[in-house]
Amino acid sequence: MKRSFLLSYVLLVHAFYGAWCSVGGSLHCEYSNSLTLHRPHSVSITEFGAVGDGVTLNTKAFQNALFYLNTFSDKGGAKLFVPAGQWLTGSFDLISHLTLWLDKGATILGSTNSENWPVVDPLPSYGRGRELPGRRHRSLIYGQNLTDVVITGENGTIDGQGSIWWDWFRNGELNYTRPHLVELMNSTGLIISNLTFLNSPFWNIHPVYCRDVVVKNLTILAPLDSPNTDGVDPDSSTNVCIEDCYIVTGDDLVSIKSGWDEYGISYARPSSKIKINRLTGQTTSSSGIAIGSEMSGGVSDIYIKDLHLFNSNTGIRIKTSPGRGGYVRNVHVSNVKLDNVKKAIRFTGKYGEHPDGNFDTKALPAIEKITFENVSGEDIGVAGLLEGIEGDEFKNICFLNVTLTVKKNSKKAPWRCSNVRGYSQWVSPEITCDSFEESIFPEHSSDCFGLSENNVETSSGLSRSPWLLFW
């Protein structure tokens, strides 16, 4: 291995691993991509015969360019430059030590011919395609067992042209599960930044079995009625940072997953150490942030901060079901602003949806140590719809400084709770459920995950005024 490559790789590792540290119970993800964007070798997609007219199919050009650039993987890596134009393509594989750069005005267009999206085996932690039994279409941009991959540019665009896939799905005309726009598997050191994603056939960005992932400065858009067009879905992945994104789609803006029922339990690959910061968006069908429902490998150490959701169905939701097994624990949600949201916070213990009939109904999930701190909302339909599982109580659920203005014409109780237990302090409207009658301070702060030091210190006098200035 050449010395230049060793230096490049050491700098990359430092950029990622140095960025993750524990301070005051939360993860900081300080990231600069300047080190990883310099590659000693660079080519343009036009050098391999690509034509950016939006009509010519360029799959072979992308494949040939990446095959050529792979020869530089041990020489510091390489950059594939996509200039302004409409670059129609089918699915193609990335390589390690690569920067895929979309210049200003460049759009990678997904083919509308399903034959240009190969069919591959299902994920082992799912056991089948997510929406249909059997296999699944591969993503437009795909990679597995990779290291040091950057997908970025000057706000170029990746457009899946998903409307034809949505029609096939609605009409029951698909034989295999729809493809994502980007899926990277079993990979380390990934950066996706400074791009716009449009009209994904299915989920937009799906890192699965990955670690050290940064998703930053993205705009992700799909029609509000487009089916299952999730924004970013980290799945059985660790050390993931999602920051400064604007997402409007037909499903969850971000959904954290870790496998499905018996397949996820067996594969046993959790999602952990995930930070979501400064996310703004809208979804009229689903949630701003969801955990699950596929969480059978476990989900833990999740930090969500500075979320702004407007004109949407649900703010934050945890979805699970008997048969899932696994766990969701150590989740801290803070500094959330909700405007015109039907359900601010929702737990669903009987979500259903199983891959087959072989799941174990006795495999119950453990949901515990979930904290909501500094949450505000206007024009809210229901403050909290908290439904656990009978015989499997969700516990140590904490609400601190939560103020949600419920619509005056709402005929529903602001809080509804079943099989969920925890603590609350300074919540309006007050949680009237018996299972939340105990206050957090002074006796139960240790039962609540990740409380900010300011609030803990202020609680000694039970005075709200010093830290209400935060708003």
TrEMBL record:
Transmembrane segments: none
A Pfam family annotated for this UniProt entry: Glyco_hydro_28
Keyword terms of this UniProt record: Glycosidase, Hydrolase, Signal
Signal peptide: 1-21
Matching InterPro entries: GH28_Enzymes, Glyco_hydro_28, PbH1, Pectin_lyas_fold, Pectin_lyase_fold/virulence
Top-level taxon in the UniProt lineage: Eukaryota
Gene3D superfamilies associated with the record: Single-stranded right-handed beta-helix, Pectin lyase-like
GO annotation (BP), single: carbohydrate metabolic process
GO molecular function terms attached to this record: polygalacturonase activity
Protein family (similarity comment): Belongs to the glycosyl hydrolase 28 family.
PANTHER family: PECTIN LYASE-RELATED, PLASMIN AND FIBRONECTIN-BINDING PROTEIN A
Protein name: Pectate lyase superfamily protein domain-containing protein
Organism per entry: Brassica campestris
